[in-house]
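Most newcomers find our protein records easier to grasp once they have seen one. A record pairs a protein's sequence with a compact description of its fold. An example says more than a description, so a record of this kind follows:
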Amino acid sequence: MKKQLSIFALTLAASASISFAANASDKPAEPAAAKETETIIIRYVDPYKVLAGLDQWKDKTDIIQKEIDTRAKNIENMKRSGQTKQEQMQNMRGTASDNALEKIQKEIMQLSNEIRIEEEALQNFAQNAMQKAQMEILQSIEEANAVIAKERGIDLVQAGPVLFASAKIDITQDVVALMNEQYTRKKLAKAPAPKETTKLAKTDDKTVKA
């Protein structure tokens, strides 16, 4: 699945020049003023390196992977149960009634359908969960780019594949540092306050609160 990033850019408005023509009989026309040269500041961000360095991305993918592992383990248990029923049916042949054989065969078929449904659900979950996580992170990357660009007077931030980007214009690690700092602050803000405990200290025969 090819990952894509939108390009964050701040463009400068070009000023339009208006020439005023004077009557030739009154005074000669003045030469047009030279246009001022504006310097555009460009910086580069590698979104994949940003993802690799983000604590937020690691936490998100860990949560997704745990859910995937749990579902996969459940499917494996279902498959083992189906295998056990298959062996039971083989052992029952020649001794069990037709009704008993038909019953266990229906159970095997039902379990097989449930396994197929769970496998499809797992595949859809893995794909959708990763896509959602990526979109959320990419939005955060764009917001971090905007913050840095505003602070440093950057006009354009190029993200994604480029033919060449000098190290002096690469702000990838700056974006990583800012986003990790923001994420840490959010986690600390959401963390429950520690419970106050009353400590007891003994002095000779008396017990007092410390």
Observations:
- Residues 1-27 have pLDDT under 50 and may be disordered.
- The domain at 41-188 is CATH 3.30.910.20 (Protein Binding, DinI Protein; Chain A).
- Strands lie at 8-9, 42-45, 156-159, 200-203, 206-209.
- The chain has four helices and five strands.
